[in-house]
Amino acid sequence: MGDKTVDGSCLCGAVKFRIELPTLFCGHCHCSMCRRNHGSAYVTWLAVDRSQLSLLEGEEALHRYASSEHGSRSFCDRCGSSLFCVSDEHPERVDIPLANVEGPIDRPPQLHVYFDDRADWAFVDDGLPRLGGGSGMEPVKSEE
After folding, report:
1. Is 140 within the bounds of a domain?
2. Residue-wise over 74-89: b if at least 16 C-beta within 10 A, else e?
3. What per-residue confidence (pLDDT) applies to 14?
4. 22 upstream amide cis, omega within 30 of 0
5. CA-to-CA distance for 137 and 117, rounded, in angstroms?
6. Range of the domain at 58
7. Which residue, 23, 29, 95, 125, is the most exposed by fewest CB within 10 angstroms?
8. How far apart are CA 125 and CA 80, in angstroms?
């Protein structure tokens, strides 16, 4: 693994964590679950191998919600901040909202996923690849 780390936390600071770089990816997710969970047009996630995530404080404040039949989202029970997302589809990985990280990571956002499920009021013109379809990872045929 790398030797650079970046810390993060929830809004109130009850849950603190550290990630060891490098990340696996960084991208914007437009799926309806992410939009509803974060109250935004899309969420920018980074991912690391689970072994690269260390919980520093607040294990007792961290709660898990089964958001689908194959995944869960963890949040702080004190401030409600969304912190971690895990899925049976990629059990070795944990996704973390970039907004909860307190420093730069090793890459900028690289792509949009579930782009065809995006909020119709959100304008995106950043030139990044747009993926969608059933898996959220297929090239979007019509880039409006």
Report:
1. no
2. bbbebeebbbbbbeee
3. 98
4. yes
5. 12
6. 5-119
7. 125
8. 30
pTM of the model: 0.91
Give the pLDDT confidence of 66-109 residue by residue, as tens digits: 888 888 999 999 999 999 999 998 999 999 999 999 999 999 99
The CATH number linked to 109 is: 2.170.150.70
pLDDT tens digits, one per residue of 19-55 = 999 999 999 999 999 999 999 999 999 999 999 999 9
Under a CB-based contact definition with an 8 Å cutoff, are residues 124 and 112 in contact? yes
* Residue-level length of the chain: 144
For 19-85, the DSSP string reads: EESPPSEEEEE--HHHHHHHTSS-EEEEEEEGGGEEEEE-GGGEEEE--SSSEEEEEETTT--EEEE
pLDDT, position 127: 95
What is the rounded CA–CA span in Å between residue 128 and residue 25?
A: 14
Residue 142 lies in a domain: no
3-state class (DSSP) for residue 9:
strand
Which phi-psi region, left, alpha or beta, contains residue 114 (left: φ > 0; alpha: ψ -120 to 50)? Answer: left
What is the domain count for the chain? Answer: 1
SS3 141: coil
